[in-house]
Amino acid sequence: MAASKKAVLGPLVGAVDQGTSSTRFLVFNSKTAELLSHHQVEIKQEFPREGWVEQDPKEILHSVYECIEKTCEKLGQLNIDISNIKAIGVSNQRETTVVWDKITGEPLYNAVGFTFFCFLNERKSLLRQTRKFQLNSELFFFFSFFFF
């Protein structure tokens, strides 16, 4: 029995979307923007105190590996050649911090982030306490948090 031929779809583009609740890997045809395959894995979250989110950094990393592997398996089942993936973009948790041991490469603690609603509550509290800021200042703080 002859081996089946892999489909050539032109350059493909992958995207890793690593967020606080899940990780996804998606592969698109770069010429048509058609989604060819994807895989998503939920990530366990811990909330040790109000507004804080903690996650196991190794679980996050493993979820990225798993999503890429499963998506590539699905592409193979569709006879799509994964060597045509020419670029991969990454979207990650900008507000989350992990500290790694520089010698062992092991995380020293969980990944620590905070929820969006906590940020708004803290900002409103600060504005109420100082009474110096007006709406424009609050908007500046909001946008500076996301864009600077």
Automatic annotation (TrEMBL):
Endpoints of the signal sequence:
none
Name the source's superkingdom: Eukaryota
Q: Please provide the Gene Ontology terms (biological process) for this protein.
A: glycerol metabolic process; glycerol-3-phosphate biosynthetic process; triglyceride metabolic process
The answer to whether UniProt assigns keyword Kinase to this entry is yes
Provide the alphabetized UniProt keywords.
Kinase, Transferase
- GO terms for MF: glycerol kinase activity
Q: Which InterPro entries match?
A: ATPase_NBD (IPR043129), FGGY_N (IPR018484)
Keyword flag Transferase: yes
Domain named Carbohydrate kinase FGGY N-terminal is located at 13-112
Family classification: Belongs to the FGGY kinase family.
Q: What is this protein called?
A: Glycerol kinase
Lineage runs: Eukaryota, Metazoa, Chordata, Craniata, Vertebrata
